[in-house]
Amino acid sequence: MRAFDDALVIKGLKFGANSFDDRPVRKVRFRRCVVWCDWGRAMEIGAETCAPEIADVVFEDCDIVRTTHIAMDIQHGDRAAVRDIRFENIRVEIDQDNPRPRMQRTAEEQYQPALEDRYCPTLLEIVIRQNNYSQDDQRGTVRDVVFKDIEVTGPHVAPSSFRGFDAEHDVAGVTIANLRFNGRSAGHAQEARLQIGPHVSRVQFAEAGP
Q1: Cα gap 95→118, rounded to integer Å
Q2: What average pLDDT is seen over the chain?
């Protein structure tokens, strides 16, 4: 799959009187996909998460051959209880030069990337926050996320970040198992360039995942 915006995505959407946002989203599998994402996020839950629950979602045995914004993320902007999410056996390629993502201001504008600024896409992100696409008046939670057997190749170590919204709407229980950059294992947050922000708990690294 080649997409300009987000490629493999789970959403919870409101459509007014005909909305399905009262239904949970469960048991979704993405397997053996090859993804080229020109601008958005290659594998994502969000940014719209209008549902009581988004659970048991697995991305497995996939190749991300290009991503410009974020490779794997949960961008949680609404009320859902997001839980039991797995990204497993994912191979990510990071290019030498990466254009920084930005919005086109006019129809005539042509994009001239400043490659000299050494921009690098984000590898993993989990964030709970109100965003431009939020339709609920409350935020949700994220529980039990696994990133297992993630192999990244390329000249740059892509950064990652996790952050919750507040003490009640938080991120809890993230396992990073066998994360490798060019064959070298990342055994803690510093090696993974992972920033752990507020309202995040129980983040653990492991050589072999559960």
Answers
A1: 11
A2: 95
Contact 62/33 with Cβ under 8 angstroms? yes
Domain ranges for the chain, please list them: 2-98+116-206
- The span from the CA of 199 to the CA of 210, in Å, is 24
Q: Is the distance from CB of 139 to CB of 130 less than 8 angstroms?
A: yes
* Other CB atoms within 10 Å distance of the CB of residue 143: 17
Sorted by sequence, the CB contacts under 8 Å of residue 87 that are 6+ apart come out as 43, 59, 60, 72, 124, 145, 146, 147, 148, 150
E strand or H helix at 87, and its extent?
Answer: strand 81-93
Instruction: Reply yes or no on whether the pLDDT at 147 is more than 80.
Output: yes
Q: How far is CA 108 from CA 28, 75, 105, 111, 123, in A?
A: 40, 31, 8, 10, 32
pLDDT of residue 209: 47
Percent of residues in the chain assigned helix, strand, coil, to nearest 5: 5, 50, 45
The percent of residues in the chain predicted with pLDDT above 90, rounded, is 86
pLDDT in tens, 149-177: 999 999 999 999 999 999 999 999 999 99
Cα 207 to chain center, whole Å?
21
